[in-house]
Design goal:
304 residues, 2 domains, eight-stranded antiparallel β-sheet, five-stranded antiparallel β-sheet, elongated, Nuclear Transport Factor 2, Chain: A, alpha+beta
Length: 304
């Protein structure tokens, strides 16, 4: 009889157990992200230069454009938020009423970002945002802005910075053009730097280096013939700031002053990291032209 009564109440017991589990799970569910917490996470990602984490705070349209721009352009964009030139170590403190203070520190400086209480209007939110150097007690380095956010598919996303709408697809073209101009100018300088290193190597060791890597730094100690320490590790590897650098010895002779060589600088990503191909011919004349991302030639116009 007791067994029968237990079996009779078993469905009710199971129902109560399931209800208890649902209540426990609901109690443990994380609180929904607020505009302030999303902005906090975005600023911490910007501080650490974590582009993938920062992209989570962007609208779908802006996130797609953010993924397309070059890593250098993404880095510059993130730096604008935290006033740091190099990645930092972020820390967050929740003050009160959904407001946060984020500190971003690197060996050079610490900046403090203060996120104020949001003003909510349906699917829009506006948050006061201040950033300054931690040592600034007078506010001379302080920057003030109003961050706009929009609710997209139930999640808060960055919409505007002050009066500037975050329209990354439109800014993408502008950033690419600006970066191309900077990269092309830098590539010309690096080509001359490589030529100077080759000539110094020739003068020191009476023959041309076999490859660019020979001009790079040794693992430790002073430079020597197989690692002359005349170029940075990056440049001796043949790639820097959106350009690929090539070095070729012309002819079979690599000894003494008569030995000749050619240098080339080619965009690593044509029309994104650069458009112009640079070419230093065997006579030391630098030339430049648009070769659709291919190597230039001695027929290209001279660079003044």
């Amino acid at each position: 009889m007791l067994l029968s009564r237990t079996a009779h109440y078993r469905p009710l017991l199971l129902l109560l157990a399931c209800s208890s589990l649902r209540t426990s799970s609901a109690a443990q569910a994380p609180a929904p992200a607020t505009p302030a917490s999303v902005l906090r996470d975005a600023m911490m990602a910007a501080c650490a230069q974590k582009a993938d984490d920062f992209r989570l705070a962007l609208t779908a349209r802006n996130a797609a454009a953010f993924s397309r721009i070059t890593p250098a352009a993404r880095s510059k964009f993130l730096k604008r938020f935290v006033l740091l030139d190099n990645p930092g170590d972020p820390h967050s403190q929740n003050t009160s009423n959904d407001t946060y203070v984020v500190s971003c520190s690197n060996p050079d400086v610490t900046t403090v970002l203060t996120i104020g209480k949001p003003e909510l209007r349906d699917n829009l939110a506006y948050l006061p945002f201040d950033v300054k150097e931690a040592t600034d007690t007078s506010g001379q380095t302080a920057r003030h802005a109003l961050i706009g956010m929009v609710r997209e598919n139930g999640q808060w996303k960055l919409l505007s910075l002050g009066l500037l709408l975050l329209d990354l697809p439109s800014l993408e073209v502008e950033w690419d053009r600006a970066e191309i101009a900077l990269n092309e100018k830098a590539a010309l300088g690096y080509l001359k730097e490589i030529a100077d290193a080759v000539e110094l190597y020739r003068k020191t060791y009476t023959h041309l280096p076999d490859t660019l890597s020979v001009l790079g730094p040794p693992p430790k100690g002073p430079g020597k013939m197989d690692k002359a320490a005349l170029l940075s590790e990056e440049l001796s590897a043949g790639r820097k700031e959106g350009y690929i650098f090539r070095y070729v010895i012309v002819g079979a002779n690599n000894s003494g002053a008569p030995a000749k060589y050619e240098l080339a600088a080619i965009p690593a990503d044509y029309q994104r990291s650069g458009s112009i191909s640079f070419f230093r011919d065997a006579n030391g004349v630098i030339r430049a032209a648009d070769h659709q991302g291919s190597v230039g030639s001695e027929l290209d116009p001279k660079v003044d």
